[in-house]
Amino acid sequence: MRGKFITVEGIDGAGKSSHLAQLGLMVRKGGFEEVVTREPGGTPLGEKLREIVLDVAMDPRTEALMMFAARREHVVRVIEPALAAGRWVISDRFSDASYAYQCGGRGLPKEVFAALETVVHPGLQPDATFLFDLDPAVAAQRSLARNGAPDKFEREQAAFVQRVREAYLERARASSGRIHVIDAAGTLEEVRERVVVAFSRAFA
Ligand SMILES: Nc1ncnc2c1ncn2[C@@H]1O[C@H](COP(=O)(O)OP(=O)(O)O)[C@@H](O)[C@H]1O
Ligand SMILES: Cc1cn([C@H]2C[C@H](O)[C@@H](COP(=O)(O)OP(=O)(O)O)O2)c(=O)[nH]c1=O
C-alpha cells in the first residue's frame, strides 16, 4: 500500500522541527516505516541549492524557481519512491512554504506559484500538513535562543514574517481538510499533546 505524505509548516522559530521525532514515533506505532526529510534540501543537489537560496538575495521568481527546482529533485528521487514503497514521508516544509514565503512574503503572483506546482508535482499534495502557528514575536525569541547565525529569511523584518504567517493561515482556510493548524504557543509538552491529537484526527 502507498505510504502517506506528511508535511510540517510554520514561520521560522515556531517550533515545527522539534516535533518531527514525535510524528515519526506515531507513524511507527501505526506499523509503518518513516522517512524524515526537509526542504529546501533532501537530496544532494537540493542541499546545494539550499545553501545558495538561504544565503544570496535574488529576484522573487528566481527564488521561487530555485525552491521548486530543489523540490522537483526531492519529489522524484525521495518522496515518490518512498511513498511507492509504502513508507510514510515526513517533510519539514513543502510547497505551502513557497506559497507563504514567496507569495505572502515576497509578493510572487499566485498564478506563478500555481503553475510551478503543476509543473513540479502534478497530482501530488501532502495527505496531511501540520501548520505550527505562533505570534512572530514569540517565534523570534525562540529563534534567538537557537545556536547559529540567522539565514537570509531569518533576517527579514517583522512585517515580512507577519505576511508569511497570514498567507499560511489563508492557505489553511482554503485547504481545511488537509492543513491542521496547531497552536504552537506554550511549552514543548503542551504543543506535543496538540500534535498527537491533530495526528490522530488526520489519520483516524
Ligand atoms: N514550545 C516551545 N517552547 C519553548 N521553546 C521551544 C518550543 N518549541 C521549540 N522551542 C525551541 O525554539 C527553537 C526553535 O524551534 P524549532 O523546532 O527549531 O523551530 P522551527 O523548526 O519551526 O524553526 C529551538 O531552540 C527549540 O528548542
Ligand atoms: C521550502 C521553502 C522554504 N523557504 C524558507 C523558509 C525558511 O526560512 C528557510 C529554511 O527553512 P527551515 O529549514 O525551516 O529553516 P531552519 O532550519 O532555520 O528552521 O527557507 C522558502 O522561502 N520557500 C520554500 O519553498
Tell me what the structure shows.
The chain is α/β, with parallel strands linked by helices and 204 residues long. It has a single domain (5-203), classed as P-loop containing nucleotide triphosphate hydrolases (Rossmann fold, 3-Layer(aba) Sandwich). Helices cover 53% and strands 13% of the residues. The protein is built from 8 helices and 5 strands. It has helices at residues 20-29, 44-53, 60-84, 95-105, 110-120, 136-145, 158-174, 188-202; strands spanning 5-10, 34-38, 88-92, 128-133, 179-183. A 5-stranded parallel beta sheet has the order 2-3-1-4-5, sandwiched between helices. The longest helix is centred in the middle third of the chain and has 25 residues, at 60-84. It is globular and about 45 Å long. The protein starts with a strand and ends with a helix. 37% of the residues are buried. The structure holds adenosine-5'-diphosphate and thymidine-5'-diphosphate. Residues 12, 17, 38-40, 54, 67, 92-93, 97-98, 101-102, 153 line the site of thymidine-5'-diphosphate (TYD). Adenosine-5'-diphosphate is lined by residues 10, 12-18, 132, 142, 145-146, 186-188, 191.
